[in-house]
Amino acid sequence: MDDLANALRDLRMHPEKGSDLKMNATFVNKFLKFIVDHICLNYLSPNEPYLSSSQITDVCTSIVTSYPGLKDTSLSGSSSFWRQKLIRRFKELRFVGDFVDKSSPTVQEMQRKHGRLGHRRIILPNAAAAAAGPSAVTVSQRHKRQYKEVEGQEDDDDNEIIASRAKRANKQRINDDEDLIEEEGDDDSDADDAGSAMAKSVDFGEFDTDVPPSHEARRTRLNETHHDSSISDVLNEMQALFPIRILRCQDLTVSDEIALYAPLVNIAVLQQEAYLMIQTYNRSKTDYVLPPSPSEMRSRIINALLLVYSKRQLLKNFNLCKDYVELPVVSEEDKLPVAVFLLLGRLRVDPSIILRDALPVRILTEDGKWCGVFVNGASIPFDSVTDSIIAFVIVFIAFNLQHLPALEAFLEVIEVLSGLRKKAVRKAAVAILDALR
Fold first, then answer.
1. Measured distance CA(314)–CA(318) in Å, rounded
2. What is the 8-class DSSP label of residue 198?
3. Residue ranges of region Disordered (predicted)?
4. Do the Cβ atoms of 384 and 337 come closer than 8 Å?
């Protein structure tokens, strides 16, 4: 695809653009796909699907040598960003897809060594058999049979179908070579990150079949009535719609998702969606921890930020923090944005970045007050600063979005402090967590 090839050529001539490209989720996702597909097709096999640590180091060194602008300027090393991304991609590839031969002695030995002997599938949480979506989704005949009986199936059968399709879709990711190796191809230009779908954290598979009519009817009815319905009724309906929603929205922008499911602008709905997504993640990977409830998740995030604020004197000597350490606050809520700025500053990230148009996920402001979030083409307003901050943290989970490079360590710290993640991976996040505890 020409857009990636052009971006890489431009990067060779202008290395200073590398920091912006690393914040561009579309570029990062396509670049990683190019690298992973090339390695899988030319160097790995189902019997030997692993790269050694030194081989991964070689790949990362090649990236930052070929494109110096993509070097990591953090203390973790010049290629730590790409190393972590590649390790994650290869792990997901082996864990979810059909790329590995489970009968291979090498695969069995590695799974035994890491406690993963036995293949787990993505299985979505139980939902009402009748869950619904847009009326004009049609597809190839070979997939229609899978869903033609979905309205009358039991929940377990529904989950089996979704699990099977997610598994097959991940296999297709490996076989679908888009000829990026030659850095030439047909024009397949993307809009910027605000208008194009951000990379998803987990690939649940392309939705290529008819939406069950009952789901579409239920979705349409909810969109028309959610403003006049009780929040408990809205939450119950959105929970029932969840399994089909995450499948059909796999390749959509958040703006498109909200156009289909209007209640997604409600903070209580977003909290529930994040909770359900973690529940789903836990069936395919183990880095997230399911909180007791959506409301408890919210409370834990608030407490995590208040903990950061309470330790602000420890941050007064950091250049990007010193302007916020003594900032006057009137209420507990006022402490939360200060804590966000302090944490970003401690991670050597300019705090103002979360207010800039350059990020596809950012805080919206009006007259200096935080009043909502912008997420991948959608502006979601909130009446309170707290709701804006909670949404900013959880939208990555609720919409199944990969963390942005600029915010990855920040989100890791918050997720670990709030008990949503077992441990941090990035060294910068680990160092801060050690200091805060």
1. 9
2. P
3. 133-225
4. no
What does the angle CA 281 – CA 286 – CA 290 come to, to the nearest 5 degrees? 65
- Could you tell me how far CA 370 lies from the centroid of its own chain? 23
Measured CA to CA, the distance from residue 368 to residue 380 in angstroms comes to 17
CB distance 136 to 220 below 8 Å = no
CA neighbor of 21 nearest in space, from 39, 35, 38, 4: 4
Question: Would residue 205 be called left, alpha or beta, if left means φ above 0 and alpha means ψ between -120 and 50 degrees?
Answer: left
Contact (Cβ atoms closer than 8 angstroms) between residue 164 and residue 123 = no
Smallest Cα–Cα separation from 294: which of 390, 159, 399, 423? Answer: 390
Mode of pairing for the β-strands spanning 361-366 and 369-375: antiparallel
CA distances, 338 to each of 30, 123, 332, 352, 418 (Å) = 35, 39, 11, 12, 17
φ/ψ region of 419 (left if φ > 0, alpha if ψ in -120 to 50, else beta) reads left
396 neighbors 402 (Cβ within 8 angstroms)? yes
Q: How far is 96 from 171, CA to CA, in rounded Å?
A: 9
- How many of the other CB atoms lie within 10 Å of CB of 252? 18
Tally helices (H) and strands (E) across the chain. Answer: 18, 3
The most distant pair of C-alpha atoms in the chain lies apart, rounded to whole Å, by: 64
Q: Beta strands of 270-385 (E only): which ranges?
A: 361-366, 369-375, 378-381
Confidence of residue 220 (pLDDT cuts 50, 70, 90): very high
Task: Dihedral sign for Cα 70, 74, 75, 76, please.
Answer: negative
Q: What is the tens place of the pLDDT at every residue in 306-348?
A: 999 999 999 999 999 999 999 999 999 999 999 999 999 999 9
Tell me the pLDDT band of 268, cut-offs 50, 70 and 90: very high
Do the Cβ atoms of 20 and 358 come closer than 8 Å?
Answer: yes
Report CA-CA distances (Å) from 191 to 7, 12, 14, 30.
13, 22, 21, 14
Return the structure tokens found at 429.
């996040």
Give, as one character, the DSSP assignment of residue 387: H
* Residue in the block written with tokens 């604020």: 309
The strand pairing partners of 380, in sequence order, are 373
* For helices 155-175 and 80-96, angle between their N-to-C axes, nearest 10 degrees: 130
Neighbours of 232 (CB within 10 A): 9
Q: Count of CB atoms within 10 A of residue 165's CB?
A: 21
Phi, psi of 165 (to 5 degrees): -70, -35
